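Quick question: what would this complex look like in 3D?
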Amino acid sequence: MSDQVNRRDFLKRAGVVGAAMAIGIGSQELQANTRRPNLVYVFPDQYRRHTIGFVNEDPVLTPRLDAFAKEGVYLPHAVSNYPVCSPYRAMSMTGQWPARNGVMANCNSSRTHLDNFLKKDAYCLTDALSDAGYHTAYLGKWHLDGPPSTPEGERAVWNVFTPPGPRRHSIDFWYSYGAANNHMEPYYWTGDGGEDSRIDIKQWSPEHEADQAIAYIRNDGGDHRDADRPFAIFLSINPPHPPYHPVPDRYRELYTGKSVDDLLVRPNVARGESGNKRAPGSVLDYFAMVSGVDEQFGRILDTLEAEGIADDTIVVFTSDHGEMMSGHGRMSKNVIYEESLNVPFLIRYANGIQARTDDLMLGTPDIYPTLLGPMGLGDRIPDAVEGVDRSSVIRDGSGVRPDAAAYMRLPPGRPSGGPRGVRTHRYTYQYGRPNQDAMLFDNTQNPYQMDNLAGKAPDLVKEMVGQMEAELERIQDPWLDRRGG
Ligand code: CA
């Protein structure tokens, strides 16, 4: 540890002690009263909300999440406003919309020349936590840096080494990679080594990353973190992201005997010729991965319990976007349909929030300010953060709830381009020409979004256009000036 870091840590602690002495708190009380809660933020990739057991939609086994949900707040209306990897990650890390943070599409080498990567001077959630005295850790997929540009026509490079320094945004414990999908043979860069220090592992990546997270939480060997400081750990698990087949058999066996029809139960799953060819061979593995992630998440919960810090730790389980899995004949994400947009969001903090289900439509840029609230850092939300602090709603249901969430997709480097839409508690609307790209669904009457009202209900379309424009106005979306032109 450098002298500079030691000095910074010393000054942080000196500040706390100084303030406590001024109001007459002894050092033991200080220890008990001023330690902020830890944060464990777990976000597997491509995990739709419908694939949690207790919500009774997909026939999936997630016993740990089912129990966890009862202990905290469950947000069935949480959305990923731009449901694809890097834009979600940049929005949650900066609290800003893509037009401001610059990550307008997935990071890869074909887009680096458009500055489509997380800027090193962005003041990220991890920077704010570090400045507030937290020891910070990031494990798993990062996917926020731009690999060196490749010539046009050449295959794009997705994975890149993030060197120690400002591109790691004050993350003290780094165990990560850029973008890769070798679930059974993952690799990572850790510590302060260079690109050649990559370590290659033969273990299912969620299990390996849980092992590392557990070692960090327990501070095995005393060298993972500074035990005097609260910690914040971001665990970015890749599964249930494709490819789906690299999953241990023990999770696949949970679904032995189930037919494709037993598993693909959503009425909007296209069948026959219009069905997606990949879904029948993928759905069992997708659910197996979900059950595996559930087990690994459970091991982390068990560790918090065993260490006696479960009540002092905020635990979040969410995802960057969902997976269509042949809904409307599609696979993957990056569309406005619920299977893509609607993500799990479960948050537990025994010492700070009342367990319940809440209809808060939490958006992606809101995550940064909303997490700082229960950590006692609500006064440290930077002005550059555009998301709204919804922590009072999370805490006890008080405060303002938004009635609309923006949906967007952007061409890299062109913030005014691409489709836009809006989701309310009842409706989903995508702007466009009736019966072409326009979509309007009444999710109360038609939860599987199979009846497009865009060409049938002109008054409702008008109302939804107004609601969408108001929301895009609020978030200062440049699209409004150009209408996707
Ligand atoms: Ca993703």
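Answer marked as accepted. Confidence is low (pLDDT under 50) at residues 1-33.
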